[in-house]
């Protein structure tokens, strides 16, 4: 059962503010089928005031004062849900529940959050907050969370960074499937359409026990809503426009049910943008073209569930032509002057160099609840990632076939499988799961040398248990992974087949303590590991998307991480706050180290990097606070501090995120004429200069600190009794500030984008 809350504080459009003119409204739905639940009792615990849902599952409670309340939903046959609700401004939240197993002699009703690891520090993006990121990439959407930033390659390619770690150290699960693309490259962004997600979840810290090796830095869950089964058709249309790049995005999702437990959903997205502009010039050849599609079909009964899902992500990305330079002299000129040699006006054309990526995902998941209790699920999936990279220079043969042939092509095929059994609660206190997982993967590469072909097998076994005792909840888990990788490469025209075998354990031990209904503290100690990937072992050539020459090292050993995380959160009537500390050491840490001199190749001059190994320390703090300052005015503040050190050389490590501090104010007008949920906001992002870098360790010193201002506004426009159009406005880099981000791989060549205004329209039908 899903209980969707929308709590809105409607204030009279006068200067006389009444903090008690608020209401709570929402809809009570079955978690799996999305069918409305009529006759459910919904009430506020503190006031003993409530109502009953109507025939369509809707409810409304009013009038209410601003503050924090406990909202309870209850109906026979379902688990009771208790939810803390803060009446500050317009917000949405989804609570996922399951049907209750009823025993007349012994009824024990409980509610539990569906988090894989409750002692981990978890951030979620959903509802209105997720809507404000629509049209952006997955990395840009996640950047709104505390402790999450992005690694950029130009203006259109972003990868999420959690506590300073990215790429193969951050595991992404797309609809429950481990995302497997060419993620080893800094310019290889996740091949995921964020519009498929109803919620984005970030698990910070080592989470390798449940999700497998590689999850050293954290896990990102891209979660769609459950399929409906009611015999109705509904959906939503999102339209987004951006001024910088003159980009337009359209996404349509439609879903419904056939009755008798069957449901379906189809979704598609189109995106088109041109050259992005910095405050002083356009970035030539930075357009984007994207076409995505997904569809799912499912069946649900009391004890059986099954779903088939397919998605295709297809994009063409222009690579900034100013990053491909013909000689060492010209490269040094760009580094000295700080401006690209190639400047142009606006264009939608995507010329060489560019990337064309297509990613297909086919998933089948089925689950069964035995009569004896528990839940057994099997998930199988196939992914195919086809990446084509075109260099700046055209081939000498001008035939059509030659012009369409990429200089580099990777075709990665991955098969994954997971079998998980969740046992029934023991004494209503102990819950847990046991599972096996594995994947088989092979890559076929064509074109100029960069990485060799390879074939990988991976198998894992895990066990997790959770014990709840009064206000304490404990958890412990253990996992074993085995990886077998066979590489096929030519050395002096002789085929070599080096074999790599890696194996290790991951573990977690954590506790959560609820001091009161307002205070919750979490502690987690975990260990995880990551085998070196084929690019780190064997790269040898121009990585054209990153405009860099990269060299691997076949002697690299697996990384082993030891993570400590401590966080506490407070939810009061007018203040919500959270602070988290992390202390992580990584033995055999692998990173790209800039070399002393650039390198000249037949394809031009490029900065040179080599994969290097050391022992590293990652430590820092994440803090956030949201407070009601006045009846209509609220403020937010987010702080992220990071300290990274090379323990072997006792010096910092290059390319780690600088400290950042984000602040915002929001004024909720409420109802204004025909507009509802009207608000305006202003925010500032300050990013420090990264002063902690080794001397003479990079081709350019870190850029200066920068400060960016942004404006937001939004409202709901009713079009009928049950439908409305949500409208949102955002203006980023308000003052068109000239800046360069330290984590942008193209900061050697050009500034970051300038002012950008966007308009978002969302219509649910």
TrEMBL record:
Family: Belongs to the TonB-dependent receptor family.
Localisation: Cell outer membrane
Database matches in Gene3D superfamilies: Carboxypeptidase-like, regulatory domain, TonB-dependent receptor, beta-barrel domain, TonB-dependent receptor, plug domain
Superkingdom in the source lineage: Bacteria
Topology term for the membrane: Multi-pass membrane protein
GO molecular function: siderophore uptake transmembrane transporter activity
This protein's name: TonB-dependent receptor
Keyword line: Cell outer membrane, Membrane, Receptor, Signal, TonB box, Transmembrane, Transmembrane beta strand, Transport
GO cellular component, one term: cell outer membrane
């Amino acid at each position: 059962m899903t209980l969707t809350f929308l709590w809105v504080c409607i204030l009279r459009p006068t200067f006389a503010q009444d903090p008690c003119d608020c209401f709570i409204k929402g809809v009570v739905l079955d978690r799996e089928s999305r069918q409305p639940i009529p006759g459910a009792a919904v009430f506020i615990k503190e006031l003993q005031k409530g109502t009953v849902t109507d025939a369509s599952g809707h409810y409304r409670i009013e009038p209410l004062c601003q503050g924090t309340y406990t909202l309870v939903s209850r109906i026979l046959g379902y688990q009771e849900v208790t939810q803390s609700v803060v009446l500050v401004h317009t917000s949405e939240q989804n609570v996922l529940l399951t049907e209750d197993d009823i025993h007349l002699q012994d009824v024990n009703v409980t509610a539990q959050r569906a988090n894989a690891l409750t002692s981990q520090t978890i951030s979620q993006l959903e509802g209105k907050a997720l809507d404000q990121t629509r049209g952006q990439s997955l990395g840009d959407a996640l950047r709104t969370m505390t402790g999450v930033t992005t690694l950029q390659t130009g203006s259109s390619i972003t990868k999420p960074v959690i506590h300073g770690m990215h790429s193969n150290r951050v595991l992404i699960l797309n609809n429950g499937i481990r995302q497997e693309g060419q993620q080893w490259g800094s310019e290889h962004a996740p091949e995921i359409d964020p519009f498929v997600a109803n919620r984005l979840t970030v698990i910070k810290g080592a989470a390798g026990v449940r999700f497998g090796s590689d999850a050293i830095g954290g896990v990102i869950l891209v979660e769609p809503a459950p399929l409906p089964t009611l015999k109705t058709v509904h959906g939503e249309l999102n339209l987004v426009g951006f001024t910088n790049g003159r980009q337009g995005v359209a996404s349509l999702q439609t879903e419904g049910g056939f009755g008798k437990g069957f449901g379906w959903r189809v979704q598609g997205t189109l995106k088109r943008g041109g050259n992005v502009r910095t405050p002083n010039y356009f970035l030539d050849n930075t357009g984007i073209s994207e076409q995505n599609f997904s569809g799912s079909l499912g069946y649900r009964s009391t004890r059986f569930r099954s779903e088939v899902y397919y998605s295709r992500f297809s994009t063409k990305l222009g690579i900034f032509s100013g990053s491909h330079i013909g000689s060492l002299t010209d490269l040094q000129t760009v580094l000295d002057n700080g401006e690209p040699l190639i400047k142009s006006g606006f264009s939608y054309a995507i010329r060489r160099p560019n990337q064309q990526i297509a990613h297909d995902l086919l998933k089948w998941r089925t689950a069964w609840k035995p009569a004896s209790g528990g839940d057994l699920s099997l998930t199988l999936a196939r992914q195919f990632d086809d990446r084509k990279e075109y260099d700046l220079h055209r081939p000498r043969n001008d035939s059509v076939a030659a012009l369409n042939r990429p200089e580099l092509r990777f075709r990665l095929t991955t098969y994954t499988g997971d079998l998980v059994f969740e046992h029934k609660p023991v004494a209503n206190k102990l819950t847990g799961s046991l599972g096996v997982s594995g994947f088989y993967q092979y890559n076929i590469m064509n074109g100029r040398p960069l990485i060799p072909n390879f074939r990988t097998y991976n198998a894992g076994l895990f066990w997790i248990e959770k014990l709840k005792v009064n206000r304490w909840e404990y958890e412990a888990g253990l996992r074993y992974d085995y990886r077998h990788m066979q590489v096929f490469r030519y050395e002096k025209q002789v085929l070599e087949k080096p074999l790599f075998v890696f194996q290790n354990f991951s573990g977690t031990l954590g506790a959560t303590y609820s001091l009161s209904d307002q205070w919750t503290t979490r502690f987690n100690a975990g260990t995880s590991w990551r085998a070196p990937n084929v690019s780190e072992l064997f790269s040898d050539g121009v990585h054209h998307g990153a405009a860099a020459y990269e060299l691997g090292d076949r002697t690299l050993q697996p990384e082993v991480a030891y993570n400590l995380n401590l966080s506490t959160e407070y939810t009061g009537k007018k203040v919500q706050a959270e602070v988290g500390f992390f202390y992580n050491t990584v033995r055999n840490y692998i990173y790209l180290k800039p070399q002393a001199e650039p390198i000249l190749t037949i394809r031009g001059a490029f900065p040179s990097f080599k994969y290097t190994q050391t022992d590293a320390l990652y430590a820092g703090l994440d803090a956030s606070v949201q407070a009601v300052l006045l009846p209509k005015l609220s403020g937010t503040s987010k702080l992220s501090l990071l300290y990274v050190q090379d323990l072997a050389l006792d010096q910092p490590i290059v390319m780690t995120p600088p400290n950042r501090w984000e602040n915002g104010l929001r004024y909720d007008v409420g109802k204004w004429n025909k507009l509802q949920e009207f608000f305006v906001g202003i925010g500032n992002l300050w990013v420090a200069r990264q002063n902690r870098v080794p001397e003479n360790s990079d081709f350019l010193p870190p850029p200066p600190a920068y400060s960016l201002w942004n404006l937001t506004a939004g409202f709901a426009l009713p079009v009928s009794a049950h439908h409305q159009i949500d409208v949102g406005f955002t203006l980023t880099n308000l003052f068109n500030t000239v800046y360069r981000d330290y984590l942008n791989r193209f900061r050697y060549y050009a500034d970051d984008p300038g002012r950008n205004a966007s308009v978002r329209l969302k219509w649910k039908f």
